[in-house]
Amino acid sequence: MMAAESRSELQVPAAEIERRYAMLRARMAEERLDAILVCGSQYAGFEGAVRYLSGFEIVHRYVYVLLPLEGDPILVFPNEARWIGDKKKPWVKKHYWADLPGQWLRDYGHAKSWKRVGVQGMSYVMPVRDYSMLEGASFVLVPFDAVFDRARAVKSAWELEAIRRGLEIIFEGFWALVRAYEPGKTEAEIMAPAVERFFARGAGPRMMNIILSGEHGEAEASFKVPGDRRVAPDDLLLYSLEIGGLEGYWVEFSRPLIRGSLSARTAEMAAVYPEALEAARQRMKDGEPIADVHRAAADVFARRGFGLGHLSGHSIGLTMLERPAIGAKDRSILRENMVFSFHPQVVDQDGKVCLYTQDMYRVGKSEGECLTPIPWKLYRGDERPES
Length: 387
What we know:
CATH superfamily of the largest domain: Creatinase/methionine aminopeptidase superfamily
Largest sheet: 6 strands, mixed
Shape: globular
CATH topology of the largest domain: Creatine Amidinohydrolase
Order of helices and strands: HEHEEEHEHEHHHEEEEEHHEEEEEEEE
Structural class: alpha+beta
CATH architecture of the largest domain: Alpha-Beta Complex
Distance between the termini: 5 Å
Helix content: 25-40%
Radius of gyration: 22 Å
Strand order of the largest sheet: 4-3-2-1-5-6
CATH class of the largest domain: Alpha Beta
Number of strands: 19
């Protein structure tokens, strides 16, 4: 793949905005909610829900979108964020600034005589100072994270196009990383050209690029930030590339790099990887229980004595981690055009050595579509993209 030319951001069409609001309001009616409060933070991966409902791109601090069951949505900012972020960009035009947004929201809901308000982001995103003000409000706060994520899990044609554009960027960065890979460099120096391409193509701060690495043909099972450790030929490098494209949709990708040889146990993991990935892909179809996708891959590895580390995948969109998760305990049913990052981390019996990959998949009618055209194999650094 040659370096792609710069492309402008896709504008969210009015029909897509109305689809989102109608979909969420239907869920609100089912839950007997008067409104939902959607929280967003500048912390990477936690900003997307606000952009999904308003078009506002968080640059710093945090923001809320208040979507009532009836009436216009509102963006609510802390006063200290008045000069941060492009306020002309969002399609939501009602903006309020407050010294304590929680107090403003409490008073606003009281004036509207609301009884039940759903909150997306109450567990991880909402600042304590606001929650403490809302805790004694005249209305009840109802957790809404799972309902919100499952409502937006099926992607529209517009969203699928935005995801594919994000993948173009991440693949360009991956090939820059491959070209930079050379024993003797540090892990950070190898990663740097990829990050340069990501930023140049509009990812901005929406990145979380980390690594699994180790010596003697093995990778330790804990993620790290690429640093100043110098790479030897037999070091196994598993860079996890995770970015949000121009439209904010997150994409993830990983392939193993090594100039020398894998250890015997890592080579055994690698030998069964293609079978496990294919078994999972075939299960990514409309109507399939999502736990069966996880089990399809896990069973392949288990027959060789290996287990899986953290969840083998998750829904992904404007938020880095969305529900449902691809795991043994989630009983969600797959629907066509859900999009997942599938990233089985295979670990040895001691949980110390691993192998890892990441690919993006679209759920199809009868089987999954892998959105990644780059083959799964060990990369040495001398490979180049097909033109």
